[in-house]
Amino acid sequence: MNEHYIAVAGARPGTNTVRHTVGVVLWWIAACLISVMTVAPLLWTLATSFKPAGEILRNALSFIPQSPTFSNYVQAFTTVPFARYFVNTLIVAFGGVVCNLFLGSMAGYALAKLEFRGRHAVFMVYLASMMIPSIVTMIPTFLVLRHMPLVGGNDITGDGGMGLINTYWAVILPGAAGAFAVFFMKQFFESIPDELGEAARVDGASEFQIFLRIYLPLARSGLAVLGLLTFQSGWNNFLWPLIVLNDPDMMTVQVGLAGFTNNYSTDYGPLMAGTVVTMLPVLLLFLFSQRWIVQGIAHTGGK
């Protein structure tokens, strides 16, 4: 009997080792499958952007172009004013980043560090607004922008009204102080000690000086994360610019990519070339700011 128990006890470490090995192998297989599923479309897009039209139709799933060509990139910038769309998107994306960082950080600072009546209720309203799908608020937002008095808007309804339609502000203002930006910066400012602001108040600093000179520099990593997310969202935005921008000279790259498709055919080569060019700014921005992003995520997670 004792020998049987000893044999069973001696088998347990080996059994656990086998289970651990099988688990590790399955984990690696799942990780590789997910990686392939994620990276394969990007590689196919890059390969297709260098393929001639005949090769795309003949061997669409190939990841290695047999006759590489740059004609698709030339055609992408000549078929439509893609360079103009690129500039428009840069203006809209960077404008959204500046507004969202400044206004979102100010609102987050107020909700985190200032005591005023209704602060909790205001924060709950912001959180509740994050639960509402953006498609629900598109028509009200469009009507508000449509009737805002700013010279330069176009009257698209014919009733004599002027507004922000067909201007950069029509894309920038609706997300100038987004609920996520306010929530993110509030959580970040709450991790910074209150004693810093109290010491500055004793020295006679105003509330705006405390925010601008003390708390804002300490939140650089959080601002970097929020800035990248805001830029990515503004750069990849398609539906809202399509609604509020109907002038060809004001369109963004995402809307411009639709110019390579019609009811009967699609120019896959120029479309993929334009897609590759469109992805570059976000990738470059991430590469140059990844140190701040890691610090911001670590800071927020370590809280």
From TrEMBL:
Family: Belongs to the binding-protein-dependent transport system permease family.
Predominant location: membrane
Name recorded for this polypeptide: ABC transporter permease subunit
Keywords annotated in UniProt: Cell membrane, Membrane, Transmembrane, Transmembrane helix, Transport
Organism: Bifidobacterium aerophilum
Its membrane topology: Multi-pass membrane protein
Compartments, record wording: Cell membrane
ABC transmembrane type-1 domain location: 86-289
UniProt-listed Pfam families: BPD_transp_1
One GO CC annotation: plasma membrane
InterPro entries named among the record's database cross-references: MetI-like, MetI-like_sf
Residue ranges of the TM segments: 21-44, 85-111, 123-145, 165-189, 268-288
One GO term (biological process): transmembrane transport
